[in-house]
Structure formats: structure tokens, C-alpha cells
Amino acid sequence: MSNELSRASYLSRNVGDYPAEFTIGSRRYVKVDDLRYGTNPHQCAAYYKPAGTPCTIGDMEIVKNGKSGLSQTNLEDISGALNIVKFCDRNACAVMKHVNPSGAAVARPGETLRDVYLKARDADARAAFGSVIAFNAEVDADTAREIMSTFVECVVAPGFSAEAVAVFNDSATYKLNRHIRIIKCGDIAALPRFTGEAAPGADTIKVLADGSLIVAAPLTTSIRSVADLIPARGENSRCGAVVSTVAATPEQLDDLLFAWHVNLSVRSNGVVIVKDGQTISVGTGEQDRVGAIEQAVAKFRQKYSGTGTLEGAAMSSDGFFPFEDGVEVAAAAGIRAIIAPAGSLRDADVIKRANELNVALYHAPERIFSHH
Question: Which residue in 356, 259, 277, 260 sits closest to 111, CA to CA?
Fold first, then answer.
């Protein structure tokens, strides 16, 4: 295929022959639209929503279209990005790439929405090229102009000012983004966040290679606020009863909470490092826990373009530490507060080592692996 034909395939539609509706168990789904294509241009796809149910994503309004519509990859990144900002009461932004956050940020006092976007983008500005961006607040013109300064696939938010929409439609000034898609989502607060609050019918459906299905409850967490962050405790025959004796600062506790909530949308094994409300690095998809931390530290040193540092940063881990080496790698990089699930036979050894390294260690009540 020539380069010209390859480029054309990314801008054209590959429409399949999908029914107007179907039923799985007692749930009826109706087609929202035929997608531009699936994961790749040679794959067709269609987009469905539960019938008769208001949907944050299924009822999205296209404010500005481009590239002949949305693809499956666009929708999956929109879903993943909204799945992060839904946790934040303050202004927040998530930059999504290949169903993993390249960066996310939440406002600290005095920061504008543009500031928050820059923190999310500059966590990994190289990966943010061609990303999907989500906000939990109305996008203003200043933020829109900053978005349009680099190449972006889609922006999704609960609203856009008229001035922001004008910026997004200014293809004469921003030629690189003439195909940008601008999308108004539904109520972000309707997305399930915390254990026990998921609405009926919110179960996830995973299709396996042979067409078999797995129906599962959505991934939520019981950690709602910093009040739910509990100092780690463990006991075994080698160490006896051990408790974390290093206290995180209020700022680190806030960063730990944000890191934990972001980690729900990171492919496991995953770790999220946060400083001052900004993910300064994300380690994702590694087969071993230490490798995820090593990857995150290396990515910070290679790709981070913000003003933050690893020293004093907070880190979340989506699974427990089977050995002390994960805490040792994090501490050597300057990380001083960690949250991870309990459950390892060596929890007491890990807590003891964290105390020795002056690292505040908190235990989460659940594991949050995401095999998306």
C-alpha cells in the first residue's frame, strides 16, 4: 500500500454490517453509530449503549467532528480518561494514549485549568502527541489554545465555552489540528467510582479470542478520601508485628490518593508516581512489580518535561510487594510515600524495610489490577 493510500485509510470509514440492537442476558443494547473503524483501519466496528439508560459516554454530543468520526481506539481512550477525572472534586485532566494515561493532573490552589492541562501533558509530552484528553470541567479559551498548540486526536469534557469552541474550529490558525474531535460528555458523576455504588447494569463485558464472554463487576475502589489511607501493618515469624512509623505529609497524602485513583486506569502491573497533583511518571504493563517501578523511574528521567522532581514524591502500586526490592527501588529514586495493597507473606519485612528507608507506607484494602 502506498503512503498516500495508508494516510487515506486513517481518515476514511470502514463500515461493517452490524445490527441495530442485540441482547446479552437481560440487557438490550442499541447502536449509537457505526465507527470509523475498530482498533485498526482494516477492522470495522460499531458502537452500542444500554437501551433506555442515560450514559455518560453513550450519549456524548459531537461538538466538532473530524477524520470521518470516532474509532474504537478513540472511544476506549475517552472512556479511560474519563475514568480518571471522575474521581476528582477539583479541576482535573487526563491525557490518554493506547488505553493508558501518559499523564494526569489535579488542580492545586491557584492553578487554572490551563495549568492543570499543562501538568498532565508535560508528564510525558512526547507520548501526549496524538492523544485523547479528558477534563471534568468546562474547557475555556486559554486551555483550548494550549491544546491546539500540539497535535491532539480528541478532547472530551462536560462543557466548552463558546470562545473555546471558536478556537477548536480555527483550522486556519491551527492547521495541525484541523481534524480534532471535540466531544461533550454526559454526567461524569454517574460513572461508578466507589465499592457498592455501581448502578445495576454497569457490569463489564470482555470478549475472548474464541468469542466467549466474561461478565464482571466494574473496577471500583473503597478508598474515597485521605481518611481511608491506613498506615501499613503486618506480622510474621521473622519480624513479629510491624507497623509503618513514617508519616506522609498532607501534600503526600493528597498525592497518594490521586495516584491510587489514577492507577485504576493503568494496565497492570502498574505504578503511578505523583508530585504536587501531577503524575510525573507511569509504569505500566510490566510482568513484574519491580520492573514497573524501574520503568516509571526511567521514564521520568527520559521523558518528563515539567518542573517536578522524584524527591519526596508519592507512589501507588496496583498490587502488593512480594519482597522488599520494590520499596528499595522507589526509595533510591527519592520516593518517600507509597500506597499498595496488603497480602504478601512478607508484608512485615516490607514495612520494616520501608521504615529503615524513611518511606511512609500505607496499605490499601484491595488490589486494583486492570487487564484491559
Answer: 277
Which three cell numbers, joined as nine digits, stand for 151?
A: 497535535
What is the length of the chain?
Answer: 372
In the chain the domains, ranked by start, together with CATH numbers, are 24-190 (3.40.140.20), 226-364 (3.40.140.20)
Q: How confident is the prediction along the chain (372 residues), in pLDDT tens digits per residue? A: 455 445 556 667 778 889 999 999 888 999 999 999 999 999 999 999 999 999 999 999 999 999 889 999 999 999 999 999 999 999 999 999 999 999 999 999 999 999 999 999 999 999 999 999 999 999 999 999 999 999 999 999 999 999 999 999 999 999 999 999 999 999 999 999 999 886 666 788 999 999 999 999 999 999 999 999 999 999 999 999 999 999 999 999 999 999 999 999 999 999 999 999 999 999 999 999 899 999 999 999 999 998 999 999 999 999 999 999 999 999 999 999 999 999 999 999 999 999 999 999 999 999 999 988
How far is 116 from 135, CA to CA, in rounded Å?
Answer: 10
CA-CA distance, 72 to 254, in Å (whole number)? 34
Q: What's the pTM?
A: 0.95
